[in-house]
Specification:
Helix content: 25-40%
Bound molecules: coenzyme A
Number of domains: 1
Strand order of the largest sheet: 1-2-3-4-5-6-8-7
Number of helices: 6
CATH class: Alpha Beta
Distance between the termini: 32 Å
Order of helices and strands: HEEHHHEEEHEHEE
Structural class: alpha+beta
CATH architecture: 3-Layer(aba) Sandwich
Radius of gyration: 16 Å
Length: 183
């Protein structure tokens, strides 16, 4: 098994304050139902922040895109609760490489509302950056609503350069060069 694949199948246990633990694993082909429940369970505000448009629930087409993950050009992970028997997805993080420039990828993440503010977003962003580096990517970027102060704060914390977005003042593009090269 090569190193890239090994990293996609590994499960990481993340202890949380208070004694609970959750686990991170790669999104798999059997996750359509869990993904649908996760995204449809986000509050309207969190869904708007994740997708940038009002979305009452995931369309079948969008769900197909979200689970169409090859773990090479489109890599995705979920965090699920450690409850035996009925684990629930409580966070999703991914990046998608540009087919024209496969060392450049766009990332996005979301944490279930009830689980926000416990450090999962920070850990997931660190995970995405580490995986992108390991895969040899040169740049990660993410588009974020200009009003999303929490995400902007996290992006700054990880050294991302925030720049004006071509689509207007409502959006900000955060860019991280992964190899020190000019981006
Ligand atoms: C943005 C998001 C991913 C952050 O995840 P999270 O798990 O809540 O973030 P963390 O717990 O790791 O906190 C990171 C920082 O955010 C800020 N933060 C967290 N909870 C907060 C709250 N309730 N109020 C204000 N700031 C908060 C803090 O600065 C925190 O740093 P600290 O730990 O030093 O206090 C999450 O809020 C989310 O899913 N939002 C909706 C979807 C979204 O915006 N996705 C981003 C699009 S790319």
């Amino acid at each position: 098994m090569n190193a890239a694949l090994a990293t996609t199948v590994a499960v990481e246990h993340w202890p949380l304050p208070g004694g609970r633990s959750v686990r991170l694993r790669a999104l798999g082909p059997g996750d359509a139902g869990a993904e649908k429940a996760f995204f449809n369970g986000l509050s309207p505000g969190s869904r708007q922040q994740r997708f940038h448009f009002g979305l009452r629930e995931l369309s079948p087409a969008l769900l197909r895109l979200l689970i169409d993950v090859d773990q090479r050009l489109h890599r995705a992970w979920v965090v699920e609760t450690g409850d035996a028997g009925s684990p629930a997805v409580i966070a999703d993080a991914r990046y998608v490489c540009d087919p024209e420039r496969p060392t450049v990828a766009e990332f996005a993440l979301a944490v279930a509302d009830d689980w926000q503010g416990r450090g999962l977003g920070r850990r997931l962003l660190a995970h995405l950056i580490a995986q992108a580096r390991r895969q040899g990517l040169r740049q990660l970027f993410g588009d974020v609503l200009a009003e999303n102060r929490r995400m902007l704060g996290l992006m700054r914390e990880f050294g991302m350069r925030l720049q004006a977005h071509a689509d207007g003042a409502g959006l900000v593009r955060a860019v991280l060069a992964l190899d020190g090269a000019a981006d």
